[in-house]
Amino acid sequence: MNIRTIEWKDNRIKMIDQRKLPNKLEYVYINNLKSLWQAVKTMKVRGAPALGAAAGLGVYLGIKNSKAKTYLSFKKELDRAAKYIATSRPTARNLFWALGNMASVAEKNRDKSISSIKKMLFKEAQGIIEEDRAACRKMGKFGAGLIKRNDSILTVCNAGILATIDYGTALGVIYRAKEERKKIKVFACETRPVLQGARLTTWELMKKGIDVTLICDNMAATLMRQGKIDKVISGADRIALNGDSANKIGTYSLAVLADYHKIPFYIAAPSSTFDLSIKAGGEIIIEERSKEEVTSLFFSKPIAARGVKVFNPAFDVTPNNLISAIITEKGIIRPPYTGKIKRLLTG
Ligand code: MRU
Questions:
Q1: DSSP character string of 97-121
Q2: Domains contained in the chain, number
Q3: Distance CA 327, CA 333 (A)
Q4: Of 116, 137, 158, which residue constitutes the final position of a domain?
Q5: Contact 189, 164 (CB under 8 A)
Q6: Residue 52 domain-assigned?
Q7: Residues 97-112: pLDDT tens digits?
Q8: Interatomic CA distance for residues 291 and 308, integer angstroms
Q9: Is the shortest distance between the CB of 105 and ligand 1 below 6 Å?
Q10: Is the N end or the C end of the chain the one with fewer CB atoms within 10 Å?
Q11: Band of the pLDDT at 300, cuts 50, 70, 90?
């Protein structure tokens, strides 16, 4: 399967509409900032690295037709676009990392003509995409070293092709293990309420010929107790300096369960997911999403009493002491994380 989650094509953004999966592989074309913002907000595109790509391309979309004559007025337009994109979803570090990269490319080249700054911004947005493709493959290689023949791996949400450009972080490790001819088995948590595991992870793993079994989120403990899980691997949306990692809601409970059952719990994430400005996970902003995702999304009739109060945080934070190792494109980091993360990523 050779697909790209998001790319620049025919002078606009082309992305898979992930809301339509697994029933339809449909692409949407985006040629204005508002549609880009909506695509992020409604999760047509989702997953931290894919959101980084969307942010980079989004900034370019926001400035490509700029008529600004001076750098200052051009930069104002760029900042406005970046600020707007930043209001779409708060948790994935990659989105803000990409916005920062775009702004600093403009700033570093402020003495150049507006048209050459535009070209450089386009190159940077493409660079973010290529960086992700390379990082995922490197993570896959490092991570596959942790996988043994006949391992049975539990994963949550979707940290695969659809969350990145074309390979995946946690699922990239699985793809690489398969490329190395290791026979493996995957259990995918359905991942309530948006069902990224059921809709997206099973879809792409099956297309890639991986042996995958879908479970409801509350079945993980039973599988672990039965000795059916050898490893848990998840992606991450933002990782603090001490290794605390935000990922899809439910990841923390899997880490607690893995710890109890003495199963290694790994996170695979590129350096663009690390937030070196925060010391610990308590500083991570957790997105809260609409109550409809819990009460009715994907169901033809409501599945909860009308008017019930709903709590719908989209992410949780797994504390570093529950994480056996973090797989990055620069190598594998093992606890204690404080100090090592900064050294590996900035060294
Ligand atoms: O709400 P989502 O679908 O954007 O959440 C995505 C996740 O939590 C992924 O596991 C994470 O971004 C890592 S993706 C490589």
A1: HHHHHHHHHHHHTTTS-HHHHHHHH
A2: 2
A3: 6
A4: 137
A5: no
A6: yes
A7: 999 999 999 999 999 9
A8: 9
A9: no
A10: C
A11: confident
163 and 127, same structural domain? Answer: no
Q: How confident is the model at residue 2 (pLDDT cuts 50, 70, 90)?
A: confident
Q: Please say if 237 is a catalytic residue.
A: yes
Pocket test for ligand 1, best of 132, 192, 247 (most atoms within 8 A of CB): 247
Domain that holds residue 17: 6-137
- C-alpha neighbours within 13 Å on the C-beta side of residue 204: 28
> What integer is the mean pLDDT of 13-36?
98
Does the pTM of the predicted model rise above 0.85?
Answer: yes
Q: How far is the CA of 176 from the centre of ligand 1 (A)?
A: 20
- Written as one letter, the residue type at 346 is T
Q: Are 341 and 241 in contact (CB under 8 A)?
A: yes
Q: Among 117, 137, 157, give the residue marking a domain's end.
A: 137
pLDDT at 297 over 90: no
- Burial of 25 per CB tally in 10 Å (0-12, 13-18, 19+): middle
User: Rounded to the nearest 5°, which phi and psi values hold at 128?
Assistant: -60, -40
- Judge whether residue 1 has pLDDT over 90: no
Q: How far is the CA of 145 from the centre of ligand 1 (A)?
A: 23
> Does ligand 1 come within 6 angstroms of the Cβ of 284?
no
Contact 313, 249 (CB under 8 A): yes
**Residue 136 CB contacts under 8 Å (≥ 6 apart), including other chains:** 49, 164, 165, 166, 167, 168, 169, 172, 270, 329
